[in-house]
Amino acid sequence: MKGLLIKDFQLLKNQKSFFVVFIAMAVIFLVTDMMSQDFLVSYVSFLSIIMMVSSMTYDEFNNGLSYLMTLPTTRKKYVQEKYVFGFILLFIAWVSTFLATTGFYLGKGELISLSDWLLSCFMILLCAVIMIQCVLPLQLKFGQNKGNIAMALIVGVLFAIGFIVMSIVKLFDIDLTFLMRMISQIDLFQIIVIMIGVVIIVGFISYRISLKIMYKKEL
């Protein structure tokens, strides 16, 4: 796995122009207050996922994945490395942006609740982790182009389900006051605990699916 990680980080050096644009836009958003702090942390975190996906695209280019499997590695280690690589990139991006935004706004003398801000950013981190867990199996199964289409279809289906549920609620005049009251009583810390549970469950399912896809993948 160590060799695969070194390979992926070396490949990142070939994307220096992307990093320059990426960092420049983040700095502009931060200095000009064009976007909220939350959005900036989300923006940088999810861009790190794009970089992870680009490494998988490069692996599949010109039968590169077939060559990798001739080296002293296994399909299982390849899957594990992609998860680890994605999480490392995400963690670096998240920590860097969190520290930069926090330092910037404290330097400006703006009053912010550090505990609420940290919990909010941690929620963003958990959402990004779930995104990695969803994207990886799709990329292994369909590749970049078809994987993007599959992800868009999944998001579309989720929105459609939400629309249908809301339409049914309005059509039959279902009272959701009690449900909304229950949800409003859940504080951010409890939501994070629930999210951590979701991350663990989704991560286990994602990893098992990714392994199954990789073992069946024709190289």
In short:
By secondary structure, this protein is mainly alpha-helical.
Describe the structure.
This protein has 219 residues and is mainly α. It has one domain. Helices cover 84% and strands 0% of the residues. The mean pLDDT is 79.
The rough form would be described as globular
Please estimate the helix content: over 70%
| Ends apart, CA distance between termini | 19 Å
In round numbers, the mean pLDDT is: 79
* Biggest beta sheet attributes: none
Q: Topology as H/E string?
A: HHHHHHHH
Tally of DSSP helical segments: 8
Structural class assignment = mainly alpha
Total E-strand runs: 0
**Strand share of the residues?**
under 5%
Low-confidence stretches: none
Number of domains: 1
Radius of gyration, CA atoms, in whole angstroms: 20 Å
Protein name: ABC-2 family transporter
Pfam families: ABC2_membrane_5
Keywords: Membrane, Transmembrane, Transmembrane helix
